[in-house]
Design a protein that fits this description.
Length: 243
């Protein structure tokens, strides 16, 4: 009977909100305090503040943030300049632009430059801020999950390469013990089983992704399944011919 799989077998559990590191950038103390209060009310405790674009870039240079809430209109470096330079410094960080009410042109430009989304001042609906932050974090988490799955895949492929190299030596007469071949065949079979579990995990992850990320994950999953099928056919010719 096949082992039942769940997303938790492959996808790390989402960290609590107090795990994530956020930066609030605004030259107005009242706005910074309000944003901090909103975020703290939703469980975010690691919150830094910057009162200028220059200070924001200094913080980004020395800290790894998950989310930056960034005011567009500030003296000195404005939000769009900070966004451009900040994305270059921290490409894995998500930026949410804070714009003046009705300033759609700025919001669209910011998103074209790589911002995840935007919120408008004054902050009339505080829940929108929490939803924007959660949406940005989902993108951060998906990247993290993808990296873990790919690392696991690399480990399995390395294991397969080693086992197949040892099998080839054995079959060429370079390795004599009779029980060695069955041991190596078992290792290949275990690695194939892990590949199949990884393919199933990628399929589960694909359901929570969208756009290019979903296409990439789907392609990776098909490739993993194809490699597992090929190895099964090599190790068990009858199984391969029955497909």
């Amino acid at each position: 009977m096949a082992e039942e799989l769940s997303a938790e077998d492959f996808i790390p559990e989402r960290p609590p909100n107090d795990f994530f590191h956020l930066l609030v950038v605004d030259d107005e103390p009242v706005a910074r305090n309000l944003l901090r209060s909103i975020l703290q009310a939703h469980g975010y405790t690691q919150i830094d503040e910057a009162e200028s674009g220059e200070a924001a870039l200094e913080s980004l240079a020395s800290n790894e943030y998950h989310i930056v809430l960034l005011d567009k209109n500030m003296p000195g470096l404005d939000g769009l300049e900070v966004l451009e330079r900040g994305k270059a410094q921290r490409p894995g960080c998500e930026f949410i632009m804070i714009t003046a009410y009705g300033s759609m042109e700025t919001a669209i430009r910011a998103m074209d430059m790589g911002a995840f989304s935007y919120v408008t001042k004054p902050f009339a609906e505080v829940e929108i801020i929490a939803r924007r932050v959660e949406g940005a974090l989902q993108r951060v988490i998906t990247r993290y999950q993808n990296e873990i799955l790919i690392d696991r895949l690399r480990m399995v492929v390395s294991e397969l390469d080693r086992a197949n190299a040892e099998l080839e030596k054995l079959r060429n007469g370079e390795d004599k013990p009779a029980d060695r071949e069955s041991e190596l065949i078992g290792r290949v079979a275990d690695a194939v089983a892990r590949l199949r579990k990884l393919a199933a995990g990628l399929d589960l992850l694909k359901k929570s992704a969208s756009g290019k990320a979903a296409e990439y994950i789907a392609g990776l999953g098909k490739g993993v399944s194809a490699v597992a099928d090929m190895l099964d056919a090599e190790q068990n010719p009858r199984a391969g011919s029955a497909k």
